[in-house]
Specification:
The structure holds 2 protein chains of 2 kinds. Chain A has no helices and 10 strands. Chain A is mainly β. Chain A is globular, with a radius of gyration of 13 Å. Chain A starts with a strand and ends with a strand. Chain B has no helices and 11 strands. Chain B is an all-beta fold. The mean pLDDT of chain B is 97. Chain B is globular. In chain B, strand 7 and strand 8 form a beta hairpin. Classes of the chains: A mainly beta, B mainly beta. The interface between A and B is medium-sized, with 24 and 23 residues.
Chain lengths: 108, 118
């Protein structure tokens, strides 16, 4: 099975900052990498699929890149509503479709 | 508007069984893969299982194989998860999710809490 890691596990940043979260797969997954945002007590929300394809309604300050084993999620200018936990998930080939452990983005 | 509403969670003793349901509306249920994802208290997300549009393909994470069964009723726009031989480590919020191509999950329910404890 494919293992996913994320770094950092937590991150403190200020409104207006540019932040980058990294996700790494234990083997090549092409671009079958998805990003989710989850706020406390809420269901996850899909931000993008296939590494860089932004979901409808997701602000353009979110962007994704990468292929193979290394991926990044970038928020160009943090807004108050962006403080949440972010998860990557691989959906390469057959299941199971594992998630990364998450990155908690907190207000500095 | 896409809606997914889970039900059936609750407190169950170790070794017991529970059947979760997910009622879908606002989209053509029979044309989508569907998934279950769980989240233990204070922990991250864990993909549990998914099922193809016609139920002909089903996949599970290793930790639930042989104990959990995913199924669907397209006539009733409903997804199910039968959970047997429950363990303390199955305690989690269980989310039902729509998966357009089986992989990523584009819409989620609000979740239902399953607690396995004596």
């Amino acid at each position: 099975d494919i293992q996913m890691t994320q770094s950092p596990s937590s991150l403190s940043a200020s409104v207006g900052d540019r932040v980058t979260i990294t996700c790494r797969a234990s083997q090549s997954i092409s671009n079958y990498l998805n990003w989710y945002q989850q706020k406390p007590g809420r269901a996850p929300k899909l931000l993008m699929n296939r590494a860089s394809s932004l979901e409808s309604g997701v602000p353009s300050r979110f962007s994704g890149s990468g292929s193979g084993t290394d991926f990044t999620l970038t928020i160009s200018s943090l807004q108050p509503e962006d403080f949440a936990t972010y998860y990557c998930q691989q959906s390469y080939s057959n299941p199971p479709y594992s998630f990364g452990p998450g990155t908690k983005l907190e207000i500095k | 508007e896409v809606q997914l509403v889970e039900s059936g969670g609750g407190l169950v003793q170790p070794g017991g069984s529970l059947r979760l349901s997910c009622a879908a509306s606002g989209f053509t249920f029979s044309t989508f893969w569907m998934s279950w994802v769980r989240q233990a208290p204070g922990k991250g997300l864990e993909w549990v299982a998914n099922i193809k549009q016609d139920g002909s393909e089903k996949y599970y994470v290793d930790s639930v194989k042989g104990r959990f069964t995913i199924s669907r009723d397209n006539a009733k726009n409903s997804l199910f998860l039968q959970m047997n031989s429950l363990r303390a480590e199955d305690t989690a919020v269980y989310y039902c999710a729509r998966a357009p191509y089986g992989g990523y999950m584009s819409s989620w329910g609000q979740g239902t809490l399953v607690t396995v404890s004596s």
